[in-house]
Amino acid sequence: MHFSLSHSGGGVLLAFAASPVGVDLQRVPNLKVADRVADLLTAEERQELAAHDVLTRPTAFARVWTRKEAYLKGLGMGLGRAPSLDYLGAGEAPVSPAGWCVRDVTAGSGYAAAVAVRLEEVDTI
User: Are 102 and 108 in contact (CB under 8 A)?
Assistant: First the structure.
């Protein structure tokens, strides 16, 4: 059994799975923080964020950041692995790395959340 835990503000997110799993929950940051931390993302993710106006960019940033942290937690590395190494996308739908399923999780107003679970190979007989 694998599990992951994340908390932010008064919210908590837990995941349990038969394979490695990661979750992340974050408050949507202000624009200044979003723009500063976006420098840690892939070039493609930064371009996608730059296409957003100042009102929607913090939410888009929170979306990609929670996907990124959930995936990195699932890998067992967390932020010990550079966030710029893996593209997960800043668009409405996440991009799942090979062998993984990444999904956004509804977390309430002012929050973003995501879960990433490694897909297990199924033996065929």
Answer: no
Residue with tokens 């837990």: 14
Give residues with Cβ within 8 angstroms of 43, minimum separation 6.
none
Q: Does the pTM exceed 0.90?
A: yes
Instruction: Read off the amino acid at residue 84.
Output: S
**pLDDT 10s digits, 9-43:** 889 999 999 999 999 999 999 999 999 999 999 99
Spatial CA neighbour of 87 closest among 47, 118, 50, 42: 42
Helix axis angle for 43-50 and 57-75, nearest 10°, is: 160
With tokens 């990609």, the residue in question is 64
DSSP string of 50-92, one letter each residue:
HTS-TTTHHHHHHHHHHHHHHHHHHHT-GGGS-GGGS---SSS
Convert the pLDDT of each residue in 78-91 to its tens digit: 999 999 999 999 99
Tokens representing residue 72 in the block: 């990195």
Tokens 């908390």: give the residue.
7
Two tokens at 8?
Answer: 């932010």
